[in-house]
Design a protein that fits this description.
2 copies of one chain form a homodimer. Chain A contains 5 helices and 12 strands. In chain A, about 25% of the residues lie in helices and about 30% in strands. Chain A is globular. Chain A has a single domain, classed as CoaB-like (Rossmann fold, 3-Layer(aba) Sandwich), CATH 3.40.50.10300. The first copy, chain A, is α/β, with parallel strands linked by helices. In chain A, the strands form 3 sheets. In chain A, strands 5-4-1-6-9-10-11-12 form an 8-stranded mixed beta sheet, sandwiched between helices. The longest helix of chain A is centred in the last third of the chain and has 15 residues. Chains A and B meet through strand 3 and strand 8 of A and strand 3 and strand 8 of B. Chains A, B: Pfam families: DFP (PF04127).
Amino acid sequence: MRILVTAGPTREYIDDVRYISNASSGRMGYAIVQAILHAGHEAILVSGPVSMTPPVGCEYHAVESTEQMMQTCQALFPTCDGVIAAAAVCDYQPKSRVSGKISKTGTAITLEMIETDDVLAALGKMKDGHWILGFALEAQNERENALQKLRRKNCNWIVLNRPEAIAAENNTVELLDNTGQTVAHWTGLKTKIAEDLVAWLEVNSGQIK
Amino acid sequence: MRILVTAGPTREYIDDVRYISNASSGRMGYAIVQAILHAGHEAILVSGPVSMTPPVGCEYHAVESTEQMMQTCQALFPTCDGVIAAAAVCDYQPKSRVSGKISKTGTAITLEMIETDDVLAALGKMKDGHWILGFALEAQNERENALQKLRRKNCNWIVLNRPEAIAAENNTVELLDNTGQTVAHWTGLKTKIAEDLVAWLEVNSGQIK
C-alpha cells in the first residue's frame, strides 16, 4: 500500500510573530508512518512543525498552515491508496493577518476568527475509491461528535481520542466505522497503537475498494 | 554570578486544546545558560515549552503560561545577581478560557484578548540593586520601541532583535543601554552571541551595583 499520513499541528498567524496552534507533538502520526514502513508499505508524511525527525524511508512534506497542509494533501492523495489524517489542524484562523507585530497599548483587542480550510473534508470530496481514516479529538459528546465528523467528511473510519492524547506518549482510542460501530479499541504506547492500526488496515482496507 | 534566564515561548489557552503562542525555539536563552555555566557562573533557567534539553548544570524550572513564568521569576529573582529575559512571552491572552474544545459551527467567532502579565516589568519593580537585561523583538520603529521598553520596564540594558531571530540558529542584535546608546553589536550564531553577551556582562554588570 501507499499511504498518506498527516501529522502534527498547524499554525495560523495573528501577526508576524504570534499564532494560534495546539500542543500536538506529531508522535501519533510519526509512529503511524514508522509502522507503515515497518510493515513494508510506502508512507507519505505531510507534517506541521514538530520537533521529531521524519522516519527514514518516508516521503516527507513540511507545512505550516492548514491551507498548505490541504493543498499538499490534495496533490498527493490521488497517488495513494488511502489517507490517515492524524494531524491536529487549527480549526480557526484570524480573519486577517497583521503585518509586523501588534504593539501592546494597555487595552484589550478583539480578534475575529474564521474557520480554516477543512483538510479531511477536502479529501473526502475527492475520495473516488481511496479510503480515508480520520482522527477526532473530542472533549465532549465524544462518540456522537466523532461519528458526525466521519459522515460529514466522508471517512471510512475515524479514530476517536481525547485531549489527554495531545503530546502524550500513550493514548486510548476507539476506531469507529461509518455505521457507528466500534470496530477496534486500543490503549497503550502510541507506537503500539500505530502498529495495531496498520495491521488492522492491512486486513480491512481492501474491502472498501 | 548567579543569573536568572528566561527562555522559549509561553502559551495562552483559548480552550483545552488551542492556544496562542509563537515559534520561539528557546535557542537564544539556552545558549545563554550554556555560556553562563561555561564561564563558571550559576544559571537558573525558567523556560516555556521547547524541544531542547536544559543544559547540564543549570537549575531548571519548566513553565507554560506567562503567569507561571512571572510567578516563578518573582520567586527566584531576589536570589540572583541579575536576569537575562530572553523568553518570547505571549503579550496577549484570551480574556477567558473555554472549558473543553470549541466545536466548529460554520460561523466566525470573536475572541477578546487582554494583555498578559508583564514578566519584565514585574521584575523591574523589584529591582533593588539587581541588574536586568531584557530582549525586545521589534518589527517596526525598532530602536525607539526597544528603548521605550527598556525604560518602561526599568531595565539596565536591552537586546534588540527582529522577527527573523525566531527559531533561527543565527541572530543579529544590538545591545542598548538606558541612555539609548548602542553599547555592543553582535551577529552570528546564537551560541557565539551568547558567549559575547556573558563576557560583556562579566565586565559591565558590576558597575550598576
